[in-house]
């Protein structure tokens, strides 16, 4: 009998509206194609946060259902269906080995659908636990890649850009320059992954295509090459 090998699961979390000409979606597609070629035996699952039904909500129905579940009370069909969707999405996230988040930057942050997805997956005793020394992530030996497009540049200046940004803020020096600290969404996402116990965090930033419209093609091509290279070892 042949030995059954555990298949590596790669979960693609696509947090982007269904539009044409998206740089993040194009780079994400290139990454997926290159990854499939380099890792033909791995399973790729695409979770589209902009699909018709959307991300299972955390609303009044959810809160009431959790309260009933806690005290073993009878759920309505709506409540049971909603909790079932929550469990399905959470299990899918927990059982994946690798994560690829694809999204545009919205006003220095993440799309609302992605924030809602992170709220859905942040579940005590599932993805993290509380201890007397603080919270501990429960998702070990996993890795994450973040693919994000932004109209301006935030990560091109590196650590020196952050130092200059803090210096200007400290002495109240006006400036239009940006740096990584202004990309609050990326910071939040990487911190959430580390909160879950995922320490292997990487990113591909497609930046400046709007601010430098005449360089859009070269910015995209550079990101496509980066996606193809990272797919080999991810």
From TrEMBL:
Residues 8-230 form the Flavodoxin-like fold domain. InterPro entries: Flavodoxin_fold, Flavoprotein-like_sf, FMN-dep_NADH:Q_OxRdtase_AzoR1, NADH:quinone_OxRdtase_FMN_depd. Belongs to the azoreductase type 1 family. It is an enzyme of class 1 (oxidoreductase). Pfam families: Flavodoxin_2. SUPFAM superfamilies: Flavoproteins (SSF52218). This is FMN dependent NADH:quinone oxidoreductase. Binds 1 FMN per subunit. Signal peptide: none annotated. It catalyses: 2 a quinone + NADH + H(+) = 2 a 1,4-benzosemiquinone + NAD(+); N,N-dimethyl-1,4-phenylenediamine + anthranilate + 2 NAD(+) = 2-(4-dimethylaminophenyl)diazenylbenzoate + 2 NADH + 2 H(+). PANTHER family: FMN-DEPENDENT NADH-AZOREDUCTASE 1 (PTHR43741), FMN-DEPENDENT NADH:QUINONE OXIDOREDUCTASE (PTHR43741:SF7). The keyword Cytoplasm does not apply. Its cofactor is FMN. Its EC number is 1.6.5.-, 1.7.1.17. Keywords: Flavoprotein, FMN, NAD, Oxidoreductase. The lineage of its organism: Bacteria, Bacillati, Bacillota, Bacilli, Lactobacillales. Homodimer.
